[in-house]
C-alpha cells in the first residue's frame, strides 16, 4: 500500500501552498508529487508531476480551496460585509430625512450610516421615514417613535431599541441579532424575513404582527419573549 504525506506552507502575500507526495510501495517507482497553491481569494493553481492523477488533483485542490476560504480572518470577513464608518459629520441627521428609492429591496440613493448614533426619546423626526438598508449597529433608539418607518434590509445587529414604538412599521429582512428590544412595540408591524438571534425581546408587544409561518417559528425560539408576547404571536 502506498504512503502519503502532506504539508502546508504560507507566504507573505497571503498565498498558501499545499504539497502531497505519494510514495509507492515498489522501490522501483519514484515518488509522485502534487502541488496546489491557493490564496484567500480562492485562486487555485496546480502543478502535478503525473497526468494520471487527475482525480487526486481534483480532490486535493478542492479541499485546499475550501480551506483557503474558511481560514480567512473573521475580521476581514466582517469588513467585507460592512463598509467603513462614514466620515460625514452629518451622517446621524440622515435618519431624519431617510432615503427615497427602492424601499422594498433595500436599494438607496444615498447610504444611511447611523452606527453609534443616539436617538434616545426622539418622538417626531423619524416617524414614517424610509431607512432602507440603513446601518444601525451600536446605535441607540431607546424610547423613540419609529412608527410607520420602512427599514427593509437594515442592519441593526447590537443596536438598542428599548421601548421603541414600531407601530405600522415595515421591518422586513432586518438583522436584529443581539439587539436590545426590551419593551419594543411591534403593533401591526411587518416582520417578514427579519432575524432576532440572541436578541432581548423581554416585554416586547406583538399585537397584530404580520409575519410568515417559518419566520414565526424562528422568532418563537427566542426564550426572552414574555408569555403575553408568545400568546400574541401564537407561539406553541
Automatic annotation (TrEMBL):
PANTHER family to which the protein is assigned, alphabetical: THYLAKOID LUMENAL 17.4 KDA PROTEIN, CHLOROPLASTIC
The keyword Cell division belongs to this UniProt entry's keyword annotation: no
Keywords carried by this UniProt record: Repeat
Keyword check for Ligase: no
Organism: Kalanchoe fedtschenkoi
Protein's recorded name: Thylakoid lumenal 17.4 kDa protein, chloroplastic
Lineage start: Eukaryota, Viridiplantae, Streptophyta, Embryophyta, Tracheophyta
Classification via SUPFAM superfamilies: Pentapeptide repeat-like
InterPro entries reported in the protein's UniProt record: 5peptide_repeat (IPR001646)
Name of one Pfam family that matches: Pentapeptide
Amino acid at each position: 500500500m502506498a504512503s502519503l504525506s502532506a504539508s502546508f506552507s504560507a507566504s507573505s502575500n497571503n498565498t498558501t501552498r499545499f504539497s502531497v507526495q505519494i510514495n509507492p510501495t515498489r522501490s522501483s517507482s519514484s515518488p509522485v508529487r502534487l502541488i496546489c497553491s491557493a490564496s484567500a481569494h480562492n485562486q487555485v493553481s496546480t502543478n502535478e508531476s503525473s497526468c494520471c492523477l487527475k482525480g487526486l488533483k481534483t480532490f486535493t485542490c478542492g479541499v485546499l480551496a475550501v480551506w483557503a476560504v474558511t481560514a480567512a480572518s473573521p475580521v476581514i470577513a466582517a469588513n467585507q460585509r460592512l463598509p467603513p464608518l462614514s466620515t460625514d459629520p452629518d451622517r446621524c441627521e440622515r435618519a431624519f430625512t431617510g432615503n427615497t428609492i427602492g424601499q422594498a429591496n433595500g436599494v438607496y440613493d444615498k447610504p444611511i450610516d447611523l452606527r453609534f448614533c443616539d436617538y434616545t426619546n426622539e418622538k417626531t423626526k423619524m416617524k414614517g421615514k424610509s431607512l432602507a438598508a440603513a446601518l444601525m449597529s451600536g446605535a441607540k433608539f431607546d424610547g423613540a417613535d419609529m412608527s410607520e418607518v420602512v427599514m427593509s434590509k437594515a442592519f441593526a445587529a447590537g443596536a438598542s431599541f428599548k421601548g421603541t414604538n414600531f407601530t405600522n412599521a415595515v421591518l422586513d429582512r432586518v438583522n436584529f441579532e443581539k439587539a436590545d428590544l426590551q419593551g419594543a412595540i411591534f403593533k401591526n408591524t411587518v416582520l417578514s424575513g427579519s432575524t432576532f438571534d440572541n436578541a432581548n425581546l423581554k416585554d416586547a408587544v406583538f399585537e397584530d404582527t404580520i409575519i410568515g409561518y417559518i419566520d414565526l417559528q424562528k422568532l418563537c425560539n427566542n426564550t426572552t419573549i414574555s408569555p403575553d408576547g408568545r400568546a400574541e404571536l401564537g407561539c406553541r
